[in-house]
Amino acid sequence: MDSLAALVDFVREFLAAEKLSEDVAFDMDLVLEELFTNLVRHGRGEGSIEVELSRAPGEVRIRLRAAEPSPFDPTAAPRVNVNIPMDDRRAGGLGIHFVRELCSIFRYEWTDGVGTTLVVMGVTD
Amino acid sequence: MLELRVESGGVVRIQGRLDAAESDAALATLEKLPGPMTLDCTQLEYISSAGISVIMQTWKRLNGQGSSLRMTGMTPRVRNVFAYAGLDKVLDIQ
Fold this sequence. Notes:
The structure holds 2 protein chains of 2 kinds.
Chain A: H1 3-18, H2 22-41, E1 49-56, E2 59-67, H3 94-102, E3 105-111, E4 114-122
Antiparallel strand pairs in A: 1-2, 2-4, 3-4
Chain B: E1 2-6, E2 11-18, H1 23-31, E3 37-47, H2 49-64, E4 69-72, H3 76-84, E5 92-93
Parallel strand pairs in B: 2-3, 3-4, 4-5
Antiparallel strand pairs in B: 1-2
């Protein structure tokens, strides 16, 4: 997880260049961390994980690419029920839940041994 | 970076980012502390699902011991993450 700090720095540079707010920074950090740790936790992206950030009117796009011997689709993760008491809650699943909460588009595709996750977050211009 | 400062009266001041890089160390510190516990989150800048898991495990341990965990001073951004998880309704957040 040492790469997380580098990821945060990368987001900071992008935000400064695009003049985006601290609220956007927080949400981008959260989405990126959850997608990144999900890949690492499941033993994916062993070589490297490529992260691409881009800006379009009203939105920010995040694309993660990793070498994957077989498809590993985060969009297929089971949905978690967040409306239950603490005693009934189990660990896990919240990370992808946060991605679903914060992103208007959440897509995955796998081609020729490369998995690509694309998310789109709405931002105020 | 994350710093946990244990103070008197069961107060723990948490400062910085509670993310996947810091969650194991944070849990190791909190596991040694008895309840009731008040987590002062005034200077908690960021939390992810890894950090939420630390809070949930601490709550479960203390609750199982008949004790309690409460959190104070959360910024709106941090509080939003608890709300996304539905935890703002079931945890003691002031």
